[in-house]
C-alpha cells in the first residue's frame, strides 16, 4: 500500500486541507498542536471509520463548523499497482455515517460498514493490525529495551497478536478447573448402587399393593352402579308424584285467583252503578243553568273589547308626549348643526396653511444643520492653527534653551549664524498665523453664528405657528366629527317623529269608555262563581258515557269469569294424587342415596390410597431417572475435560513452534538492517523465545543494556521494523509499502538524530514510503520531501 493523497473538510482542527504524499523519506514537520498526528489519525479514520480509540463522534467535527456542515475524509492510495479511493462523510447533529470505495475511479462499495469490510478484505489487516504493523512512536521504541522483561514480552506479544493465544490458554485452564469442581459436586449428590437397588425393590412392593387395592375398587364400583340403577327407578316414580301434585296445586291456585277476581269485579260493578245514577241527576241540573253560561260569555267578550280600546288610549297619550320631546330635540339639533357648520368652515384653509408651514420647517431645519456643520469646520480649523502655534512656540523655546550651537529642529543641521534667522522665521509664523489666519476664521465664525441665530429664530417662530395651526386643525376636525354625529341624530329624530305622526292618525278613531269597562268587570265578578259551577258540571258529565260503558263491560266480565271458574273447579276434583304414598317413596329414595354415598366414600378412599402409592412410585422413579441423567452429565463433563486437556497440550506445542519461528525471524531481519546501519560494526542481534535482546560484538553475545544510548536507539528502531515485517508476513500483508514513526527523536541530541536519520536513509530501499513525524524544525533539510504544518 502506497499513500498518494489525503483530503480533509471540518475534521478535528482542519477546516479544509489537502496533502499529496511523495515516495521516499518524508518528514511531517510542525510545532506541537499543529496537527501532525491528526494526519495519520485521518488516514486510519478513512480506512476503518474509527480513531485509535473508539468514541469519535464528539471529537471529529471541527469546533468552528456548524452541525449543518459535513465532516469529509478522503484517502487515495495504491495497492498492488491498482489505484483506490475511500471517502467517508458524516452529516447532521448525530454525525450519520456514509462511505464510498472506488477502484480505478469506479465505485465498487457504499455504506460505512461495507467499506470497512472491503478495506480489511483488501489489506488483510484489521485496525489493530494496521496500527501495530505500520505505526510506531518514540515511547514504543524506547520501551523495547527499557521495560522489564515480563512487560516487554507482553508488549511484543501484543504487537504480534500472540496475546490472543495467551488469553485462549488462560480460558482453557479456567474452564478445566471449573469442570473439575463441577464433577466433584456431582459425586456428592449421586446415588450409590445400594441406594438404587433399595429404591427398585420399593417400587415392586408398591405395585403389588396397588394391584390388591384396584381389585377392591372394581368390587365397590359394581355395588355403586347397582345403587345408581335403583336410584334412577325411584326418581322416575317421584317425578310422576311431583308432576301430579304440582298439577293439583296449580288448579287450586287458579280457582282461588278467579274467585278473587270475580269478587273484585262485583264491587266495581256496584260503584259504577252509583256513579251513573249520580251523573244523570247532575245532567238534569245543568239544563236549568244554560242561560247563566251565555250571559257570562257575552260580558267576557265586552271586557276584551274595552281592554283593546284602553290599550289604544294609553298608546295615543304616550305618542303625544313623545312627539313634544321630539320637537324639542329637532329644534335643538337643527341649531347645533348650523353652529358647527359655521365653526368648521375654515378647515380647508388651515390644512393648506399647515402643509406650507411644515415645508418651511424642513427648509429651516436643513439650513440650521448646514450652519452647524460650517461652524464645527471653522472651529476645527482654528483648533488646528492653535496647535500649529503651540508646536512652533515649543520649537522656539527648545532652540532658545539649547542656544546658538544647537541643531535646526527641521533639517537637524547646526544653526550657528542662522540662529537669529531661524528664531525670527518661527516667530513670524506664529505672528502670521495668529494675526491673519486665526483672526480671519474668528470673524467668519462670528458672522456664521449670527446667521445661525437668525435661522434658529425663523425656525422657532415657524414651528410655533405650525403648532398653533395644527391645534386649530385638530379642534375643527373634532367639530366636524361632532357635526356628522349631530346630522345623524337630526335625521333619526325627524324619522321617528314622522313615524309617530302616522301611528297617531291610525289610532285616533278608537274611543275608550272607562265607565262601561268598569260596569262590565263588576257584572263578570257577579257571574263568575255560577259560571265556574256550570263548567264543573259539564266536565263531570263528560264521564257519563264512559262510566256507562265500563259498567256494561264489568257485567259481561263477571259472567265470563263465573263460567271459567265452574269448569276449572270440576277439573281440580278429577285429579288423583296420594300424598302418603308420595312421602313413603321420598323416604325410600333418601335411603338408597345414603347407601350410594357410603359406597362412594369407600371407593374414593381406595383411589386415594392407590394415587398415594403411585405418587411414591413416581417419586422413586424420578429419583432414579434424575440419577441417570446426572451420571450422563458427569460423563459429558469428563469428556469435555479430556478435550480441554488435549487442546491445552496442542496449544502449548503451537506456542512453542510459533515462538521458535517468530523470534529467529525478527532476529534475522533486525540483524541485516543493524549490520547495514552500523556499517558492519555489529553483525547480529539475537531475540530469545522470551523476547530478550542481545547484540553480538566481536563474536560475543551481550545484553542490549551494555551498549551506549545511540546504539540502543538504533537497535530499538531495527527491532521495531523487524517486528512490523514479521507481523506483515504472518498476516500475509506484504503489499503494504510504507511505515510511519511519530516523534522517534524524543529529546536526543543532534548527533543521535543524525544517526537515526542516516539509519532511515539506509533502509528506505526496503520501503517506498517512510513518514517521520517531528516538531524539530532544524532537521527538515535531512528529508527528501517535507510537509510543513
Automatic annotation (TrEMBL):
It comes from the Bacteria. Residues 416-465, 544-609 form a coiled coil. Keywords: Coiled coil. One of its GO terms (biological process) is double-strand break repair. GO terms for molecular function: ATP hydrolysis activity. Residues 5-224 form the Rad50/SbcC-type AAA domain. The keyword Coiled coil applies. This is Chromosome segregation protein SMC. It comes from Poseidonibacter parvus.
Amino acid at each position: 500500500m502506497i499513500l498518494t493523497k489525503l483530503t480533509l473538510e471540518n475534521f478535528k482542527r482542519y477546516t479544509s486541507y489537502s496533502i499529496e504524499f511523495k515516495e521516499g523519506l518524508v518528514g511531517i514537520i510542525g510545532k506541537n498542536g499543529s496537527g501532525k498526528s491528526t494526519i495519520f489519525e485521518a488516514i486510519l479514520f478513512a480506512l476503518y471509520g474509527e480513531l485509535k480509540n473508539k468514541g469519535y463522534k464528539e471529537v471529529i467535527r471541527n469546533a468552528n463548523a456548524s452541525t449543518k456542515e459535513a465532516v469529509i475524509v478522503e484517502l487515495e492510495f495504491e495497492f498492488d499497482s491498482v489505484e483506490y479511493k475511500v471517502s467517508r462523510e458524516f452529516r447532521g447533529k448525530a454525525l450519520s455515517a456514509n462511505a464510498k470505495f472506488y477502484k480505478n475511479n469506479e465505485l465498487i462499495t457504499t455504506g460505512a460498514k461495507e467499506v470497512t469490510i472491503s478495506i480489511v478484505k483488501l489489506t488483510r489487516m484489521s485496525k489493530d493490525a494496521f496500527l501495530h504493523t505500520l505505526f510506531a512512536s518514540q515511547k514504543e521504541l524506547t520501551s523495547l529495551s527499557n521495560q522489564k522483561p515480563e512487560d516487554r514480552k507482553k508488549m511484543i506479544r501484543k504487537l504480534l497478536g500472540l496475546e490472543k493465544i495467551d488469553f485462549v490458554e488462560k480460558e482453557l485452564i479456567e474452564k478445566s478447573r471449573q469442570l473439575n469442581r463441577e464433577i466433584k459436586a456431582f459425586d456428592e449428590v449421586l446415588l450409590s448402587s445400594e441406594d438404587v437397588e433399595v429404591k427398585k425393590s420399593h417400587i415392586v412392593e408398591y405395585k403389588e399393593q396397588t394391584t390388591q387395592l384396584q381389585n377392591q375398587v372394581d368390587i365397590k364400583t359394581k355395588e355403586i352402579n347397582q345403587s345408581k340403577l335403583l336410584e334412577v327407578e325411584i326418581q322416575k316414580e317421584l317425578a310422576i308424584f311431583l308432576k301430579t301434585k304440582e298439577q293439583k296445586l296449580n288448579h287450586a291456585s287458579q280457582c282461588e285467583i278467579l274467585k278473587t277476581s270475580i269478587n273484585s269485579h262485583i264491587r266495581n260493578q256496584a260503584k259504577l252503578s252509583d256513579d251513573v245514577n249520580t251523573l244523570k241527576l247532575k245532567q238534569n241540573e245543568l239544563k236549568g243553568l244554560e242561560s247563566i253560561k251565555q250571559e257570562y260569555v257575552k260580558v267576557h267578550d265586552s271586557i276584551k273589547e274595552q281592554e283593546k280600546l284602553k290599550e289604544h288610549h294609553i298608546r295615543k297619550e304616550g305618542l303625544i308626549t313623545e312627539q313634544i320631546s321630539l320637537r324639542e330635540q329637532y329644534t335643538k339639533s337643527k341649531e347645533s348643526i348650523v353652529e358647527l357648520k359655521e365653526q368648521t368652515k375654515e378647515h380647508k384653509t388651515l390644512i393648506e396653511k399647515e402643509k406650507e408651514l411644515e415645508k418651511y420647517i424642513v427648509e429651516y431645519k436643513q439650513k440650521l444643520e448646514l450652519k452647524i456643520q460650517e461652524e464645527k469646520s471653522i472651529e476645527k480649523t482654528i483648533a488646528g492653527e492653535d496647535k500649529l502655534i503651540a508646536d512652533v512656540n515649543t520649537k522656539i523655546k527648545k532652540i532658545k534653551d539649547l542656544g546658538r550651537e544647537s541643531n535646526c529642529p527641521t533639517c537637524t543641521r547646526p544653526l550657528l549664524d542662522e540662529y537669529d534667522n531661524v528664531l525670527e522665521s518661527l516667530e513670524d509664523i506664529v505672528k502670521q498665523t495668529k494675526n491673519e489666519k486665526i483672526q480671519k476664521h474668528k470673524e467668519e465664525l462670528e458672522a456664521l453664528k449670527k446667521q445661525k441665530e437668525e435661522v434658529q429664530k425663523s425656525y422657532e417662530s415657524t414651528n410655533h405657528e405650525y403648532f398653533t395651526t395644527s391645534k386649530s386643525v385638530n379642534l375643527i376636525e373634532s367639530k366636524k366629527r361632532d357635526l356628522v354625529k349631530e346630522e345623524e341624530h337630526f335625521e333619526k329624530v325627524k324619522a321617528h317623529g314622522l313615524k309617530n305622526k302616522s301611528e297617531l292618525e291610525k289610532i285616533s278613531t278608537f274611543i275608550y269608555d272607562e265607565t262601561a269597562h268598569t260596569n262590565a268587570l263588576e257584572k263578570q265578578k257577579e257571574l263568575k262563581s255560577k259560571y265556574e259551577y256550570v263548567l264543573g258540571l259539564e266536565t263531570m258529565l263528560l264521564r257519563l258515557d264512559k262510566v256507562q260503558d265500563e259498567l256494561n263491560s264489568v257485567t259481561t266480565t263477571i259472567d265470563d269469569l263465573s263460567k271459567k271458574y265452574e269448569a276449572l273447579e270440576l277439573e281440580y276434583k278429577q285429579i288423583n294424587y296420594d300424598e302418603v304414598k308420595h312421602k313413603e317413596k321420598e323416604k325410600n329414595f333418601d335411603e338408597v342415596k345414603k347407601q350410594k354415598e357410603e359406597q362412594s366414600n369407600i371407593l374414593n378412599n381406595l383411589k386415594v390410597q392407590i394415587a398415594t402409592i403411585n405418587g411414591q412410585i413416581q417419586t422413586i422413579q424420578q429419583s432414579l431417572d434424575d440419577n441417570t441423567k446426572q451420571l450422563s452429565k458427569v460423563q459429558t463433563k469428563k469428556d469435555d475435560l479430556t478435550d480441554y486437556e488435549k487442546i491445552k497440550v496442542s496449544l502449548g506445542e503451537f506456542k512453542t513452534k510459533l515462538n521458535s519461528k517468530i523470534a529467529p525471524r525478527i532476529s534475522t531481519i533486525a540483524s541485516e538492517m543493524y549490520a547495514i546501519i552500523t556499517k558492519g560494526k555489529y553483525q547480529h542481534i539475537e531475540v530469545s523465545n522470551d523476547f530478550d535482546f542481545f547484540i553480538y560484538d566481536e563474536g560475543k553475545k551481550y545484553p542490549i543494556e551494555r551498549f551506549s544510548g545511540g546504539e540502543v536507539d538504533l537497535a530499538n528502531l531495527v527491532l521495531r521494523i523487524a517486528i512490523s515485517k514479521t507481523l506483515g508476513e504472518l498476516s500475509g500483508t506484504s503489499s503494504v509499502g510504507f511505515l510511519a514513526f511519530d516523534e522517534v527523536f524524543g529529546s536526543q541530541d543532534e548527533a543521535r538524530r543524525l544517526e537515526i536519520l542516516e539509519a532511515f536513509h539506509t533502509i528506505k530501499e526496503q520501503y517506498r514510503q517512510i513518514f517521520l513525524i517531528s516538531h524539530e524544525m532544524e532537521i527538515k533539510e535531512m528529508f527528501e520531501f517535507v510537509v510543513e504544518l
